[in-house]
Amino acid sequence: MRIPIIAGNWKMNKTVTEGLNLVKELKGVEENTDVEVVVCPPFLHLSEVKNELKNTDIKIGAQNMHWEKNGAYTGEVSPEMLSEMGIDYVIIGHSERREYFNETDETVNKKIKSAIDYGIKPIVCVGETLDEREAKKANEKVKKQILKGFEGIDKEDMKNIVIAYEPIWAIGTGKTASSKEANEMISFIRNIVKEKYGLDISEELRIQYGGSVKPHNVIEIMNETDIDGALVGGASLKAKDFKEIINF
Ligand code: 13P
Fold it and tell me: What's the pTM?
């Protein structure tokens, strides 16, 4: 059985103080649910948030990382640094990183491999633009992202990976893919994984939906057979909303 995973991607929001206030309010939410809860604050917040959540089951994720262990990469954060801190997850290949910071399927691939080497679980984001969807190219785009992104990744490693399907046109826009559209794409992704890694791995893999997930639409999304959780942006910034989503 796949345990649902709901992760809050704070993006570039909240000061450290504000972030700590938010996680203080979240504490305990994980105790009455079968959902795995993850918060992904900015790098600067990770240490203090980790400390604040130390006696809870809420997991912590970074929003990005470099693939190299260390080196002359001004402004970057390495997997070794995250791993020493005990960071559980890392979001890789978010569409905003692909769009604004030249992230490609090749860099996504390097980052997935590196995260696995350091024992950090990747949440790998894929998704199409509105133009691609309207041109009926969404499946092709997502398939390419998966096949290139996961090149050389072993079957065994897939057990520690989460995929997040985030249609770009639904991020921060208030538009969600209908739960049926999201489920169709997520089944399609599961099928690609089945072809590459076999039925067992594809059935174990958790695939989240992301894009304007809110308290009012989470139930419908989570009721779909293939959707195993949500990657939540805006609504993860308010404790009340994020808790409602977790307790869907
Ligand atoms: P919103 O929930 O704000 O649409 O963001 C989704 C997202 O990009 C999560 O990674």
Answer: 0.97
